[in-house]
Design goal:
single chain, 155 residues, alpha+beta, 19% helix
């Protein structure tokens, strides 16, 4: 028996990659680039984090290293206290009085380093014990209880 090959009965050779294999290779290449870039989908390839980019690796401190007092964010101060802070930068700064820190809660400084600024109460009926104390270098301390405790305004 003799078989004759006709063009309609001949299959093309199967030497090339199939569609599934090609997709697998492309996916493997993309994962390789991603892994090389550090595994971060938003990172660039071929760069180091020290080439001008800043990365946040730790949370901001919750305590002032100089005084040991907790930090309070300026946004958490009452509006009247913020008005006093803003007025300190203006030419119409409120009148302050020397503050000698009798309880020793602030970092020790010589002479009349600290200035006390009372904060107007929210309502006239209640006199407020809120106080702002500003140091000679511009650091600001906040007290809600008339100076029994303080927090450093910042970072």
């Amino acid at each position: 028996m003799v078989y004759r090959l006709s063009p309609e009965n001949v299959r093309p050779p199967r030497g090339g990659p199939s569609g599934a294999l090609a997709m697998f290779l492309v996916l493997a290449f993309a994962v390789g680039i991603w892994a090389f870039a550090g595994g971060d989908p938003g990172s660039r390839t071929g760069g180091s984090p020290d080439d001008g980019e800043t990365t946040m690796t730790e949370a901001p401190p919750t305590q002032d290293p100089e005084s040991g007092l907790p930090y309070v964010a300026p946004a958490l101060l009452p509006e009247a206290a913020l008005d006093v802070v803003v007025a300190l930068d203006d030419t119409e700064a409120p009148e302050g009085s020397p503050f000698d820190d009798p309880a020793g809660l602030l970092p020790p400084q010589p002479g009349a380093y600290y200035t006390l600024y009372p904060v107007p109460p929210a309502t006239v009926a209640e006199p407020g014990p809120d106080r702002l104390v500003v140091g000679g270098a511009g650091e600001i301390y906040w007290s809600r209880d008339g100076g029994a405790t303080f927090a450093r305004v910042g970072p």
